[in-house]
Structures are given as C-alpha cells and as structure tokens.
Amino acid sequence: MRIWAKLMTDGHIRKQFVYENPEKLTYSHFFDYLTEICQTLDIPTPVLTKTHIFNFAKFNHVKFMNRDFVESLGYDYLFLENIL
Q1: Predicted model pTM
Q2: β-bridge partners, 3
Q3: Which end is more exposed in the chain, N or C (fewer Cβ atoms within 10 Å of the end residue's Cβ)?
Q4: Residue 73: which residues within 8 A CB-CB, separation 6 or more?
C-alpha cells in the first residue's frame, strides 16, 4: 500500500511524501496511517470523519481543508492519494 501525501498552496505542491506500508490497506487503521503521514510532514493531524474515509475508498483520494485541523496548517490543504 502506498499513499501520496501532498501539502498544497495556491495550486502548487509545497511538500510531499509517499507513505509506504507492506500491509494491505485497512480502513479501520486509516487514522494510524494519517497520523504517521502527518508526523513525517511535521503538521498537525486533522480530524478524520466517515466522509473522509468514504471519499478515499470511493475516489482513491481525500482532501483535508484547513477547517479539518484544530491547529493551524500553514498550507491550503492536505491531499492524500492512493497509489494503485
């Protein structure tokens, strides 16, 4: 499983990271993946809702806006994309 994480500002990638895990993608562990990605990118972890998980499962990507973070993000949004 690989997830491409991108921190975007003004339509440009400001910081990126490819998260790799030898295990199969499990949606019950999605928060753990998200936490590891955010720690690597040195950003706060956003609030994860069912809608985020459903979007990732259905469309293979999810966007976390500034409103999804309790702390300030410093970027326009965090975009996670499942690399198939």
Answers
A1: 0.92
A2: 19, 82
A3: C
A4: 7, 43, 44, 66
